[in-house]
Design goal:
326 residues; alpha/beta; five-stranded parallel sheet; two-stranded antiparallel sheet
Length: 326
């Protein structure tokens, strides 16, 4: 472990943002394994999010930027520091803070076809006990559209509107262009690097090779690399127990993240025990039924933003539901 001798802004950074439920946990593991990259001691630091953003974090910027160094206690001074916090995409305060404090950071954003992402959020919210097990996908989507209607009718500035929990923001947060345009405006057209979950799932070696080129590091490390998927969305047998398990895991990680003598053995123990736990507390995933009306409603809602995204990044996303709409 090296003791930091530089200021936070002196180091090199790779900031991974993007949509939630887009394999960013797996991507963090892949990137953190590269010898030139050093990941924060837990995947989502959430350091630059606004204080009111509805996600917990041990450290959040409140005037002392140097606290950010505490999230990288195991990093050598010449390594690229990796912070993978998807919700930086959605938080204007995070954009402003990254631009101000880490102006030379590399920015990469992972995006996923918005309807499949919404289905994944629906499953995940049930997995962690946020949604009733008997709530249908159609009913969930209706709730989200009700919130969206209230959002549009509310005349207060966006930054002052009520903030819902993540799983109830899932509809609007699938409109990527409305968030990315601010990053492009702030950092320029060539600074944010955009890639797709679908490509990462199908061609992980190619995606990581391209990311290495973007960061400016050697991609040979991934030629024989075993790409394993982590943090899958599962269907739980006992959602209450799983919710408690996740809470305990989060608290332990926050307490031990800068105590490597404790943290590293516990992380290895988790990697051994968690697969067994998941086998015991999961059941086969059921297909999510979506009515044709809901499907059409979602396509109509997202198609304008998908077109805006294609224009913004000068690339057509590989998303079948929108390949024939304009």
């Amino acid at each position: 472990m090296s003791i930091p001798t530089k200021k936070v802004s002196d180091y090199r950074y790779l900031i991974v943002g993007g949509t939630t439920k887009a394999a960013t946990t797996s991507l963090f593991a892949y990137l953190a394994d590269h010898p030139t990259i050093c990941g924060a001691t837990y995947k989502e630091t959430r350091f630059f999010l606004h204080s009111d953003y509805p996600l917990p974090s041990k450290y959040r910027y409140s005037g002392d930027l140097e606290e950010y160094n505490l999230l990288f206690p195991l990093c050598d001074e010449d390594q690229v520091r990796l912070d993978s916090t998807p919700d930086y995409l959605y938080c204007g305060h995070a954009l402003e803070r990254i631009a101000k404090f880490l102006p030379h950071a590399k920015l990469a954003f992972s995006l996923r076809e918005p309807i499949s992402r919404l289905i994944s959020w629906y499953r995940f919210a049930k997995q962690i006990g946020k949604l009733p097990q008997d709530l249908s996908f159609d009913a969930y989507v209706k709730k989200l559209f009700d919130i969206e209607e209230q959002f549009q009718m509310d005349s207060t500035p966006t930054d002052e509107k009520p903030i819902h929990e993540q799983y109830m923001q899932a509809l609007r947060q699938g409109c990527y262009a409305i968030y990315l345009k601010d990053y492009f405006k702030e950092f320029g057209a060539n600074r944010p690097y955009i890639f797709f979950y679908e490509d990462l799932a199908a061609y992980p070696s190619k995606v990581l090779t391209n990311l290495c080129s973007f960061v400016g590091i050697d991609a040979k490390f991934y030629e024989d690399y075993a790409f394993k998927v982590t943090n899958r969305t599962e269907t739980m047998k006992n959602t209450d127990f799983h919710k408690k398990y996740r809470d305990v895991r989060f608290r332990i990680r926050q307490w031990t993240h800068n105590k490597p003598i404790i943290h590293n053995p516990l992380r290895l123990l988790r990697r051994t025990i968690e697969p067994l736990y998941l086998r015991l507390n999961t059941r086969p995933t059921e297909n999510v039924h979506m009515s044709e009306g809901t499907r059409n409603q979602l396509i109509n809602y997202y198609k304008g933003d998908v077109n805006d995204l294609a224009e913004l990044i000068d690339k057509v996303p590989p998303w079948e539901p929108f390949s024939s709409v304009s």
